[in-house]
Design a protein that fits this description.
The protein is elongated, with a radius of gyration of 23 Å. It is built from two helices and nine strands. By secondary structure, it is of the alpha+beta class. The strands form two sheets. Strands 1, 3, 5, 6, 8 and 9 form a six-stranded mixed sheet that branches. A three-stranded antiparallel sheet has the order 2-4-7, with no helix packed on it.
Length: about 160
């Protein structure tokens, strides 16, 4: 009869092999988000998954960002929506959408009448020169948008030729 001496290293190797084989045999493959790298999306392609056929108008939404960004990794952007922010009439969401990034929806911010005013300042990553769209959803069901082209000299995310 052969006596096997277990060491910590052998035990960890055994657990690792059991874990890998169990994962490969019993798991389903993960599905990532739809990636649009390399293709410039139209305004309709970017907005329709959110508005779902509702009307959207270009008014009372202001985007402030540099026209030329040296680095696509940290592009500052400020969004301001004109709204009374009352219980009856307020902005509920702001979406930041990208025309070229691998994932179209870069960010979503939620608001309510308790905010007092509707504005967001953040930094975004851009995979090259593209149109950035800010879309606001109001409590009335109305959608407002504005767009801005940002020229990026050194892209981030992926190289979207």
């Amino acid at each position: 009869m052969k006596v096997v001496s277990w060491t910590r290293r052998k035990g960890l190797k055994g657990l690792l092999l059991v874990g890998i084989s169990g994962t490969l045999l019993n798991s389903q493959f993960a599905h990532g988000q739809r990636m649009n790298s390399g293709r410039l999306l139209s305004l309709e392609d970017m907005v329709q998954p959110i508005v779902k056929g509702a009307k959207f108008v270009k008014k009372e939404l202001h985007i402030e960002a540099p026209i030329l960004a040296d680095n696509g990794s940290l592009v500052p952007i400020h969004i301001q929506v004109q709204s009374p922010m009352s219980e009856q009439d307020h902005v509920t969401h702001i979406y930041l959408l990208s025309q070229r990034n691998p994932v179209t929806q870069m960010a979503m911010f939620q608001f309510g009448p308790w905010n007092g005013r509707c504005g967001v300042s953040t930094r975004i990553r851009l995979a090259g020169t593209q149109e950035v769209v800010a879309l606001a959803r109001l409590s009335s069901g109305e959608f407002r948008y504005n767009q801005m082209e940002i020229i990026v000299t050194e892209s981030s995310c992926v190289d979207a030729s």
